[in-house]
Amino acid sequence: MIGDRPSAKACTVLIALCGVASMTAAEDDDRFEMWEEPSHQLVFVEGPARVLDVRIVPGVTSGYHKHRFATLYVIIQDALVANQFWDGDWSASGPRDYREPGATVDNANYVENPYYHRVRNEDDRTFHVVAVINERPVSRLDEPQETAGAIIDNGWFREHRVRTAPGATSAALEYTNDVVVVQYSAGSSHIVENGTAHGFKGAPGAFSWHPAGPAFSIANRSATEMEFVLVEVKH
User: Fold this and answer.
1) Which residues pair with 217 in a beta bridge?
2) Any bridge partners for residue 77, and if so which?
3) Smallest Cα–Cα separation from 104: which of 75, 133, 146?
4) How many Cα atoms within 13 Å fall on the side-chain side of residue 108?
5) What is the pTM of this model?
């Protein structure tokens, strides 16, 4: 399945970069899940996995929403956003360096430290990320976290990187877990599986979903090099 959001509507939300506020069980039952907050767009659901297209345009404040499942974010376009926990003050939005397109943020710690917040875009550019959620109920402590440089590999996700030259097709890719392929560079690409092209992507932030097992390749149909983040959603 392919996800390619066509427009940057007034949306919202995301990565709290400072502090954590706990929630009681009663509060947790009454509050919006991240994907229920109207300005977050839920674009795919399969088993314990959810994929969200998150965009916060300049000047927009999201509604309050909770984070309680392991989440991996792929940055499509970074921006300076302020954060406010329930009954708390607004945090400062910056200054800080923008994260590059394709950077990933590991928030598996939502499982052990859930919180309820909203965010506000205080920049002059849209904040855009693709969020991959794994609802599998496992403690972070059940599996040791391993990293190789900036590559994420924990109890919920394993990150991979693929680059394709202009007009080229990647080697065959095969994984033991379901995989989300996120295109974060400009251009056109598609998936090749058993000689058939599908999973067309035409803009940064487009994604496709691939079940565990069958091999596939990524074809670059542009005149420039393209880059992709592949996220295994561990069973």
Assistant:
1) 192
2) 128
3) 75
4) 22
5) 0.85
